[in-house]
Design a protein that fits this description.
heterodimer, A: alpha+beta, Alpha-Beta Plaits, three-stranded antiparallel sheet, two-stranded antiparallel ribbon, 2 helices, globular, B: alpha/beta, Rossmann fold, seven-stranded mixed sheet, 11 helices, 17% strand, Ferredoxin (chain A), metal-binding (chain A), iron (chain A), 4 iron, 4 sulfur cluster binding (chain A), 4Fe4S_Fe-S-bd (chain A)
C-alpha cells in the first residue's frame, strides 16, 4: 500500500484527527457542519482542528467527507 | 491511520475525479460503511454501474465491479445474479441513468422483484454532460437545457418503485448520512429488489444554475427540503412543493424472481420425466 505523505495529525489526550491534505478538495462541508465548530479553514480552505478540545467524536465530519480525507478516532489513555 | 474506508477502496485511484463536495463520495462512503457493518465477504460482492458521474463509483471499490452501458446496469446485474445466486449484487445508478435511459429496466427489475440492491444517487441533473435537466429535476429549477426553468414534473422514484413491485424502498440524503447508512444496511440485507434513493448535491452543474454554487449551500438546501414522514403529514399542499420525505417507505416480503425461476425448472423437469 502506498504510504500517504501529506496526512497531518492533530491530537489531544482524548481524540486524534487526521487530515489528508492530498485527498482534501477544500469543499468546506466538514467545517460548516461540525456541531462544535472544531474546524477552521486554512488559507487553502482545508480544515484545521483549531478547537480540538471541543470535539465530541461524533464522526460527522468523517461520514460527510466526500473525499475520505478526514478521520476522527478516540485515543485510549493507556496508549499514552 | 487505517480506516474502514481504506480497507475497501482501490487506493491507487485516489484522490477521486469527482468535484469538490460532490455527494457521490459521501454515498460511496455510506455504502462501504453499510457493507462493512454487514460483514460480507467482499469477494462475493459485485458492484455494477452504468454511465455518468456516479457510475465512476465502481472503479474505486475493491469488490468485483463492472461499469456497463448507459442505463443498462440493471440488466447486467440481473444476468450476473441469475448466473450465480451466491453473489450479492449492488447496482449504483445516477438519476438520469436510472429514470431516463434506464427507466424501463428499473420498473421491470422491480416488477420481477429480483434480489438486487439499487442505490440511486439523485443529484437532479446530468452532471457529467454539463447540466442538462433530468427526469428528477424539480419543476421550476434550472438546467443548461432549461434556462427559463424546468416545466416538467419530476418522477417520485420511490413511489414508482413501490408501484412496480419492489420489496424494500427508502430514501436518504447525503446530509442525513447516519440514517442513510442504516437504510442501506436494511436494503442490502433484504431479499428481493431493494431501492435506496439518495438525494445528493451537485454544486458544479445543478448548484451553478440554481444559485447554490458551493457544496455547503447545497447541503443546507438538502437539509431544508428533506422532511420526515411525520413532518410531511403536517405540511400543507403548498408547503410540500419541492420537499422530499426521507426514511423507509416499504419493507415487505414478496416472492423473489430466482426462487420462482428454480421452481419452474423443477416443474418442467418433472413434466418431462427428468426429475
Amino acid at each position: 500500500m502506498k504510504q500517504k505523505k501529506l496526512v497531518e495529525i492533530y491530537q489531544n489526550n482524548s481524540v486524534k484527527i487526521s487530515v489528508d491534505r492530498e485527498w482534501c478538495k477544500a469543499c468546506g462541508i466538514c467545517i460548516e457542519f461540525c456541531p462544535k465548530d472544531v474546524l477552521i479553514p486554512d488559507n487553502q480552505g482545508k480544515p484545521i482542528p483549531e478547537n480540538i478540545d471541543a470535539c465530541i467524536k461524533c464522526n460527522l465530519c468523517e461520514l460527510r467527507c466526500p473525499d475520505f480525507a478526514i478521520t476522527v478516532e478516540g485515543v485510549k489513555e493507556k496508549d499514552e | 491511520m487505517k480506516t474502514v474506508i481504506d480497507d475497501y477502496i482501490r487506493e491507487e485511484m485516489f484522490p477521486h475525479m469527482w468535484c469538490p463536495g460532490c455527494g457521490n463520495g459521501i454515498v460511496l462512503g455510506a455504502i462501504i460503511r453499510a457493507i462493512d457493518d454487514l460483514k460480507w465477504d467482499r469477494d462475493k460482492i459485485v458492484m455494477i454501474s452504468g454511465i455518468g458521474c456516479s457510475s465512476r463509483i465502481t472503479g474505486y471499490v475493491d469488490f468485483c465491479s463492472m461499469n456497463t452501458t448507459h442505463g443498462r446496469a440493471l440488466p447486467f446485474a440481473t444476468g450476473i445474479k441469475m448466473a450465480n445466486l451466491d453473489l450479492k449484487v449492488v447496482v449504483v445508478m445516477g438519476d438520469g441513468d436510472c429514470s431516463a435511459i434506464g427507466g424501463n429496466h428499473f420498473i421491470h427489475a422491480a416488477r420481477r422483484n429480483i434480489d438486487l440492491t439499487a442505490i440511486i444517487i439523485n443529484n437532479m441533473i446530468y452532471g457529467m454532460t454539463g447540466g442538462q435537466y433530468s427526469p428528477l429535476t424539480p419543476t421550476g429549477r434550472f438546467g443548461t437545457t432549461a434556462p427559463y426553468g424546468n416545466i416538467d414534473q419530476a418522477f417520485d422514484l420511490t413511489s414508482l418503485a413501490m408501484a412496480a413491485g419492489a420489496s424494500y424502498v427508502a430514501r436518504g440524503t447525503v446530509y442525513h448520512v447516519r440514517q442513510s447508512i442504516s437504510l442501506m444496511k436494511k436494503a442490502l440485507d433484504k431479499k428481493g429488489f431493494s431501492v435506496v434513493e439518495m438525494i445528493s448535491d451537485c454544486p458544479i452543474s445543478f448548484g451553478k444554475m440554481n444559485k447554490m454554487r458551493t457544496a455547503v449551500e447545497m447541503l443546507k438546501w438538502i437539509k431544508d427540503i428533506a422532511v420526515s414522514k411525520k413532518a410531511w403529514e403536517n405540511l400543507s399542499v403548498e408547503e410540500r412543493k419541492e420537499k422530499f420525505v426521507i426514511g423507509e417507505f416499504l419493507d415487505i416480503d414478496r416472492p423473489e424472481y430466482n426462487e420462482r425461476y428454480n421452481e419452474i425448472i423443477k416443474k418442467a423437469q418433472k413434466m418431462g420425466g427428468n426429475e
